[in-house]
Every structure is written in C-alpha cells, then in structure tokens.
Amino acid sequence: MPHWKSWYGTAWDSEGVEQLCISQRRKGEEKMKKRLASTLLAGAMVCSMVLTGCSGGDAEKKDTPPAEKETDTNKGKEQDAVGEAAALIDAIYVQERTDQTDEQCAKAKEAWDALTEEEKEQVAGENADPDYFGRDTGDASKDDPRNQDEIGENEILAVSFGTSFNSSRVDDIKGIEDAIQAAYPDWSVRRAFTSQIIINHVQARDGEAIDNMQQALDRAVANKVKNLIVQPTHLMHGVEYNEMTEAVSAYEDQFETVKIAEPLLGDVGTDATVINADKETVAKALTAEAVKEAGFDSLGAAEEDQTAFVFLGHGTSHTAKVSYSQMQTQMGELGYDNVFIGTVEGEPEETSCEAVMEAVAQAGYKKVILRPLMVVAGDHANNDMAGEDEDSWISAFRASGEFDSVDAQISGLGSIADIQKLYVEHIKAVMNDTAR
Question: Tens of pLDDT along 366-406?
Fold first, then answer.
C-alpha cells in the first residue's frame, strides 16, 4: 500500500483532499478494474493472433482485408494517445513543484483535449481518471488566486490545503479571504495552498495559478512586506498546521514582524471533555446553518421530527484527533442531543461510520442529514460523504435499513458568515499581540 505522502503530502488532519482515504481506495479499485479489462482484452488479441498464425499460415495472412489492418493500426494509435494522457496526468499528481511543472501541466491538458469523448472515458493511470479533467466542479473564473504583486508593507497570508472543486474554492476559501480583506482594508490578503497536487490540478485544468507556500513567501519578500500575518484556514493544530509553521519559520528573518493566527477550532489540548470558546462558536454556527437548510425552525423541531444531524470531518491519526471528541462534548453541553460527529478516517474510533450509525439508531432517530465538518466541501464531502458508491456514508446509512430517510447537505464551513467572522477575530487577536 502506498505511503500517504504519495497522494497528498500530508496527513488528513486539515482541509483540505487529500491521507489514504475511502475515496482514493475506491478510485484505485475502479482503475484496477479498467486495467484488468485492458489486460484481458490484450491477452485475447494475442491468443487470437497466435491461433490464426498456426492454423492459416501465409495463405490466411494474404486473405486479411486491408481495412481490418488499418482499423487495428488506428486502435493502437488511440490506445497510445490514451496512455500518454494518463501518464502526463500522473506526472503532475505529485507534491513537489519543479522547473518543469508548468510545462507538464500544459502538456497534460493538451493531451487530454486531443482525445475523443470515447477515449477520455478510457483514461486510467495510477491517479489519472476521466474525472481529473472531465468533472464539472463549477466556474473557476469566479475565483481569485490572490497572487498579485504590489502588496505593500502589510500582508495577511491565508493558507489553505486547497481544493480542486471550483465552486467550493469560491464559496469556502475565497469566502473566508474576502471576509478578511473586508475587515482589514489596509492589509493585502494573499493566498497559499499547501497541496501542490491540487495546485497542479487547478492550473492544468483551469489555467489558474495558485501559489504554494514557498512561492507566496518569496512573493512577500520580493514585494518588501514588513509585517506578515499568517492565517491558516485549517480546522485544527495538526500535521498540516505544523508543516505550515515550519515553512514560515524559515522566512522569519525576512520580515520585521511575523505572526501566526489560530486555526478554526483554536487550542487542541489533550482532554476530550475540555473545550474552548472557538469550538462553541463553530458548533452553534454549523448547527444553525444545517437546521435552517433542512427547513426546520429550530434544532428542537428537528428532534421532534426524529431527525438527527451527522457532521462529518476528515479524521486523523495525529494527537489533534481529540478535537473531534471535544466537538461531540461541545454538542452535548449545548443540549444538541440529535447532533453527532463522524470522520471519514474513523479516528477517533467513536467517529467511524459504523459507530456513528449505531449511535444514531440507538438514540431512536429515523431521519438523518449528513453535512461536512470541513472548511471546504470538496472531494470528501462530494464522494466519501454523499457519493453514489456503496462505501460512501450516505450509501451505508441507507443500506442499513435503520432509517426512513438519509440526505446530505454539501456546504463547507468556510461559506458560513459566523465562521468567517471567527477567522477575522483570530487575526485581530494576533494583531493586538505585541510579541513577534
């Protein structure tokens, strides 16, 4: 089994697509099926050629119509083109940026565009599939990569894992960045993604260039920024957050002041029963939006209707996973008895699909609404939570036979106004902190 860095470069403790997860296993299985089918077809063709050669000799070769030979040649060329497109996609599905990355992104898109619609459906590689370029995820032109120069002396760098889902990037990530810019008009808000895989995906497919951490920090230095505030959009203090702080620390001497604001849920701690004000704010904001979107006047009205809400996070093996347990504690302290916390990765254990499904059923709720506990409603929300495959959460809940209805709301935390305000408050806190 590949190491998780082969896909995303960091563990899935933050926003962010992309530690080894259900969606990747599913995609891998589909690709293996395609490869097996291709192998069997190729083997059949070889056997047919051998048998023909043994039984007919030169006489049968002479009888082969020219049209059939030409068709076989064309099929070979088609397969070569499909294979080349898949290989070029795999080449940019990497976490490291090189001097060849821009050219590789352009070549991958050119190879894809040259395929027929039928050929595009055949694209299959280690990570390549028809959805890489073919899936409609919204209008990328509505986004702002925030990679402009002329920054000025004061910069707020919003750091996200990133997402290739265009609509989610606009609603969730850009939504947070816009709120920060509106709150601090004298500062220039810029963007960095920590997933080069996602950066490459967006650049190749949509022609949108987004800075990675090194590019964003180099840009700040080149623009002679004096005061830098880094605001991560990550959910918690996990691996992704730690790697971000290490990258920033290497540039500290390039600025007069450098400050890093808190991620969304604030301090982690070690006790599942000890919570903070940030978690309370997130719990209230997320639940209120979910209840409103479901058409209820209150959470109590939903409970009377035997409706439970399941908020699904990424999950992580990092010690920061206690944050999910703390969020469940917070829901309980608020009296939100029909709200349950789950995770794609099933860590901590009580947040696994099986554990949460059992808890909801035992509590007597007959209707379930799934919604992301993620800043961005990207791959996990669309596939692992609400996807059509049998291993998605919505499919598992429906297949259990325990519930009358199971629905999903595909909206990220970043699009909620009160969540955006919380990021603004985190920045205000470090602005008021006189320490470097």
Answer: 999 999 999 999 999 999 999 999 999 999 999 999 999 99
- Answer yes or no: is pLDDT of 57 > 90: no
Angle CA 117–121–123, to nearest 5: 115
Q: Is the pLDDT of residue 153 over 60?
A: yes
Q: Is residue 272 part of a domain?
A: no
146 Cβ contact list (under 8 Å, min separation 6): 158, 177, 189, 190, 191
Whole-number CA gyration radius for the chain: 25
Domain that holds residue 196: 140-266+419-431
Residues 193-222: pLDDT tens digits?
A: 999 999 999 999 999 999 999 999 999 999
The residue annotated as part of the active site, out of 201, 234, 237, 314, is: 314
201: annotated active-site residue: no
Return left, alpha or beta for 400; rule: phi > 0 is left, psi -120 to 50 is alpha, else beta.
alpha
Which one-letter DSSP state was computed for residue 212? B
240 φ/ψ angles, rounded to the nearest 5 degrees: -60, -45
Q: At what angle do helices 101-113 and 196-206 cross, to 10 degrees?
A: 50
List, in sequence order, every beta strand (DSSP E) within 307-410.
307-313, 339-343, 367-372, 405-408
Nearest-angstrom CA–CA distance, 311 and 290? 9
Same domain, residue pair 221 and 314: no
In one-letter notation, the amino acid at residue 39 is T
Report if residue 327 sits inside a domain.
yes
**Smallest Cα–Cα separation from 408: which of 385, 432, 435?**
385
Residues 174 and 222 in one domain: yes
Pick the closest to residue 22 from 371, 384, 372, 341 (CA basis).
384
Residue 191: φ, ψ to 5°? -120, 145
Q: Average pLDDT, stretch 149-165? A: 97
pTM tops 0.85: no
